[in-house]
Write a structure and sequence with these properties.
The protein is an alpha/beta fold. The protein has helices at 40-48, 90-95, 99-105, 107-120, 136-148, 166-182, 194-200, 218-223, 228-234, 242-247; strands at residues 2-11, 14-24, 29-33, 55-60, 63-64, 75-78, 154-158, 187-191, 203-208, 211-216, 238-241, 258-261, 266-268, 274-283, 288-294, 298-304, 315-320, 325-328, 338-339. The strands form four sheets. A seven-stranded mixed β-sheet has the order 6-7-8-3-9-10-19, with helices on both faces. It has a five-stranded antiparallel β-sheet with strand order 13-17-14-15-16, with no helix packed on it. Strands 2-1-4-5 form a four-stranded antiparallel β-sheet, covered by helices on one side. Helix 3 (99-105) crosses helix 4 and helix 4 crosses helix 5 (136-148).
């Protein structure tokens, strides 16, 4: 198990990681989620031994790793660009981390292990391919297989899908989750993408300004964000006072005084009880997102079906879905919080 205690990393007078405590149990995936510059990649590099730790400890199974060099930690690394070796074919890249074991177990074992990993990442039969002939997604699959080849006790992944286009990223997220689960890999995963984090991780830790702002299971964070900032970062679009919703006659509201709304909290409906004026229309591949001005409430986001014809300036009616809201604690509560 990875245990991070009171971890601090500084660059001169700049605090990059500020007294962070985290645990990653064996066989679990913890994702560090946050905006650029929040300290998540710095923390991953500190765990790997690539950044000096200014305070606190990084330990594995209770053993402090201070002074243990990168290559002695038994950790695997996978970065945004897979950095494959161009002079080696796919099989050679994957086998690179098996050199020591292969000397003891032999070439037949190495070939079997490489074939096993290629099948695991969906690239069976690609062993003889040159890496320069691979697509971006295929290259990252090879990089994942190479990182997993020596069966690391911890896999560190730093924005592994960030360089890929959106469609490919969505496909590989599922592959990553399946592979990490199938191999019972313990992993620390860094990303700025909320959908990616929630799809891959067992536990998500949201970072801002070098600190953990909330940690818990994805469903727990989604249903009960610890602050307005967390709510906005994970996909809520509007924060309103509870009384504003109550005045509209809406019921089944959270008890908190401030309420965060997801886009799906309001849906275009001819039978809806909430009246408003459409301000803007943004078509998407699955739904249309509307911005609607509602008297007494302000501008909110709403969803409509692709076949609905709506234009800016048009009066609309909205139905309210109480499942699309979450109560927020007082503003001063933007502090480290554990959920679930």
């Amino acid at each position: 198990m990875l245990t991070i205690t009171d971890l601090g990393v500084r660059y001169g007078t700049t605090v990059a990681v500020d007294r962070v405590d985290l645990e990653v149990p064996d066989g679990r995936v913890l994702c560090l989620l946050g905006p650029s510059g929040c300290g998540k990649s710095t923390m991953l590099r500190a765990v790997a031994g690539l950044e000096p730790v200014g305070a606190g400890t990084v330990a594995w199974d209770g053993r402090d790793l201070a002074g243990v060099p990168v290559h002695r930690r038994g950790f695997g690394l996978m970065f945004q660009s897979g950095v494959l070796f161009p002079h080696l074919d796919v099989a050679g890249n994957i086998a690179y981390g098996l050199r020591r074991e292969a000397r003891e177990r032999g070439r037949a074992w190495r070939r079997h292990r490489v074939g096993e990993l290629l099948e695991l990442v969906g690239l069976a039969g690609f062993g003889a391919r040159g890496v320069t002939t691979l697509s971006g997604g295929q290259a990252q699959r090879v990089a994942l297989a190479r990182a997993l080849a020596p069966s690391p006790r911890l896999l560190l992944l730093d924005e592994p899908l960030a360089a890929l286009d959106a469609e490919l990223r969505e496909r590989l997220v599922q592959t990553l989750r399946e592979v990490l689960t199938a191999t019972s890999t313990t992993a620390l995963y860094v990303t700025h993408d909320q959908r990616e984090a929630f799809a891959v991780a067992d536990t998500v830790a949201l970072m801002r300004g070098g600190r953990i702002r909330q940690i818990g299971a994805p469903a727990g964070i989604w249903s009960a964000p610890a602050s307005e900032w967390v709510a906005g970062f994970v996909g809520y679009t509007t924060v309103v006072d509870r009384v504003q919703l109550a005045v509209l006659g809406l019921v089944e509201l959270p008890a908190e005084s401030r309420i965060a709304l997801r886009p799906g909290a309001f849906v275009l409906s001819r039978q809806g009880s909430v009246h408003g004026v459409c301000v803007s229309v943004m078509p998407g591949p699955e739904v249309i997102r509307l911005r609607v001005d509602v008297a007494g409430l302000g501008t909110v986001e709403a969803l409509s079906a692709l076949h609905d014809e709506v234009v800016a300036g048009q009066g609309v009616r909205l139905a309210f879905d109480a499942a699309g809201v979450a109560g927020l604690p007082p503003r001063a509560a933007d502090l480290p919080t554990r959920e679930g």
